[in-house]
TrEMBL record:
Any GO MF annotation of the entry: transferase activity
Keyword match Plastid: no
A Pfam family this chain is assigned to: Transpeptidase
Gene source species: Candidatus Giovannonibacteria bacterium GW2011_GWA2_45_21
Keywords annotated in UniProt: Membrane, Transferase, Transmembrane, Transmembrane helix
Domain Penicillin-binding protein dimerisation: 57-188
Compartment list: Membrane
Domain annotation Penicillin-binding protein transpeptidase: ranges: 251-552
Protein name per the record: Peptidoglycan glycosyltransferase
InterPro entries in the record: Beta-lactam/transpept (IPR050515), Beta-lactam/transpept-like (IPR012338), PBP_dimer (IPR005311), PBP_dimer_sf (IPR036138), PCN-bd_Tpept (IPR001460)
Domain of life the protein comes from: Bacteria
Origin organism lineage: Bacteria, Candidatus Giovannoniibacteriota
Length: 570
């Protein structure tokens, strides 16, 4: 009897244990399905829809106004996505009418998708909360209104190629192109804590799951000033419309700190609607990824090298016969005309190829090439954008004078625009090689921040050289460029134009009727706060950069001097 009694007691204890376990299990399932059910439904719905999940999150990218206030450049937006279950729609016409009364949609597209035999068809993404909630209230059979978060760019196309976009890499949403890609480790948010193993949850009895990795997560504050960026983009758009160029681009940089106030190129795209673009190349940034033969804006670097090495002065003369023969090839001035005895200042004033060649030969191949390498030519600048090109500077390693001669006036070597702006900043900042950058500060979610600087990395020419080449370039503006018509009475401006022939990749040599126009200038010249670089690729119906880029440059210079209230320097 005692044995039976003990057996009965054990059965009762086991039964109570099972009841208790079942109670815990049911309670836990209730908590997961009802209390936290929205999390799992959002995940499932997002998998069906293929859109950006309701739990998707990402750090913010900011522009910064000149007064230090922040402006959102890339942020998150919440709303809904609209989809249908075609197999659950009894009457497509009625369903369409109900949806269309609240949200106008394309009729043909709807009926095509409603007629399919699939379980799920996306109709429209990124509905605002009010529209989504109004549709939810209708409870239309076969219609799904799914909560979603997505990346949003409040300024539309502004600085699109700088910002980049967010898209899928496999099954994961991530930064693609631009700052979104370069700072992916900072901007991404680890949402792994939202995706829990249900059975682990049930049996663990713990609320805490995976600890999120937050040490690198944060927001980024860029150097881009939105008003300046907008002004530059409008100037480029006007240039493109007037000259029908294949590309147009510009950079406005602080030549001392390396901070980039504006960086723009055309053609560009709308990051809020990038799926409409058929050519993925439009998402790249030619200012850092493409290399061009820049032409005569390289001559000031050649002159600076000659001044710094002590082989010439501004008054050193040579006999310009209009051309020079080197290694069986003829190098001519742009107009093929001789000037006779001229000095170094005229090499810049009249943009003489023979003069640049003369200086290169005075330096010698080895010294000339070393100066150009010191200027950062042929290497990446270190700018915080992906896919930067080091350009093409192999001709600087040649044993022949010919390749060094063409390099001295900007042909035969190819530079990215940002590499060019960096090299030319040396002339403006007292002789230092800087690191251009687009982000000035990272604000980490962990509560600390990091300031980013790119100024005065390495001296490459003497301060006196910088001052002398600046004086010479100011004379170019005051006396030579458009015969002095753009001289600024109260501000010193140093500048130079460049017109380069475009290489023919098929037959070798250069096209006779295709050019790259470039222009750079800095101001106030002797205490430069801005350096502006502009280029046009294959403008139509015009030969020289002085005709296309001089006035836009002056317009930008006047705007910046006024906008930042820069005091006159003369």
């Amino acid at each position: 009897m005692k044995s039976n009694s003990r057996h009965s007691a054990r059965v009762k204890i086991l039964f109570l244990a099972i009841l208790l376990f079942a109670g815990v299990l049911i309670g836990r399932l209730y908590f997961l399905q009802i209390v936290e059910g929205a999390i799992y439904r959002a995940e499932a719905e997002a998998q069906y829809l293929g859109g950006q999940r309701a739990d998707f999150n990402r750090g913010t990218i900011y522009f910064e106004n000149k007064d230090g206030t922040l402006v959102s450049a890339a942020t998150m937006k919440s709303g809904y996505n609209l989809a249908i279950h075609p197999n659950l729609i009894a009457n497509a016409s009625t369903t369409f009418e109900k949806i269309n009364a609240i949200l106008p949609i394309a009729q043909d597209n709807f009926f095509i998708k409603a007629g399919k035999s699939s379980n799920w068809e996306e109709i429209k993404k990124y509905l605002n909360p009010e529209t989504g909630e109004n549709l939810l209230m209708l409870k239309i059979p076969g219609v799904e209104i799914v909560p979603a978060n997505w990346r949003f760019y409040p300024a539309g196309k502004l600085a699109a190629n700088v910002l980049g976009l967010v898209g899928y890499q496999g099954d994961t949403l991530a930064g693609r192109y631009g700052l979104e890609s370069y700072y992916e480790d900072v901007l991404k948010r680890d949402e792994s804590g939202l995706y829990r193993n249900i059975f682990a949850e049930i049996f663990s009895g713990l609320e805490k799951t995976i600890v999120k990795k937050t040490s690198l997560e944060g927001d980024i504050i860029t150097t881009i000033e939105p008003t300046v960026e907008n002004f530059l983009e409008k100037k480029l758009a006007a240039l493109n419309e007037k000259w029908q160029s294949a590309e147009a681009g510009g950079i406005i940089i602080n030549p001392k700190s390396g901070e980039i106030y504006a960086m723009a190129n055309l053609p560009t795209f709308d990051p809020n609607n990038f799926s409409a673009e058929s050519d993925v190349n439009i998402f790249s940034n030619p200012l850092v990824e493409n290399a061009y033969e820049m032409g005569s804006i390289i001559k000031p670097l050649t002159v600076a090298a000659g001044l710094d090495a002590g082989v010439i002065t501004a008054t050193t003369t040579y006999n310009d016969t209009g051309f020079i023969e080197l290694n069986g090839r003829k190098i001519s001035n742009f107009d093929k005309k001789a000037r006779g005895i001229v000095d170094t200042q005229e090499v810049l004033n009249q943009s003489l190829n023979t003069g640049a060649t003369f200086i290169m030969r005075k330096l010698g191949q080895k010294t000339f090439s070393q100066y150009f390498w010191n200027f950062g030519i042929g290497e990446e600048t270190g700018i915080d954008l992906p896919n930067e090109s080091p350009g093409l500077a192999e001709n600087l390693k040649s044993s022949r004078d010919l390749e060094h001669a063409t390099a001295s006036f900007g042909q035969g070597i190819a530079l990215t625009p940002i590499m060019t702006a960096r090299a030319l900043s040396i002339l403006a900042n007292g002789g230092f090689l800087i690191t251009p950058h687009l982000v000035k500060k990272i604000e980490y979610t962990a509560g600390f921040s990091k300031n980013i600087s790119g100024g005065n990395d390495k001296r490459v020419i003497k301060k006196e050289t910088s001052e002398e080449i600046t004086r010479m370039l100011v004379e170019v503006v005051d006396k030579a460029l458009l015969n002095g018509q753009i001289k600024q009475e109260h501000f010193s401006v140093a500048a130079k134009t460049g017109t380069a022939q475009i290489a023919n990749p098929a037959g070798g040599g250069y096209f006779e009727d295709q050019f790259l126009h470039s222009f750079f200038g800095y101001f106030p010249a002797y205490e430069a706060k801005f350096l502006v670089f502009l280029y046009l690729y294959k403008p139509v119906g015009v030969n020289y950069a002085s005709q296309t880029l001089t006035q836009p440059f002056i317009d930008i210079a006047k705007f910046l001097l006024n906008y930042y209230n820069i005091p006159p320097d003369r």
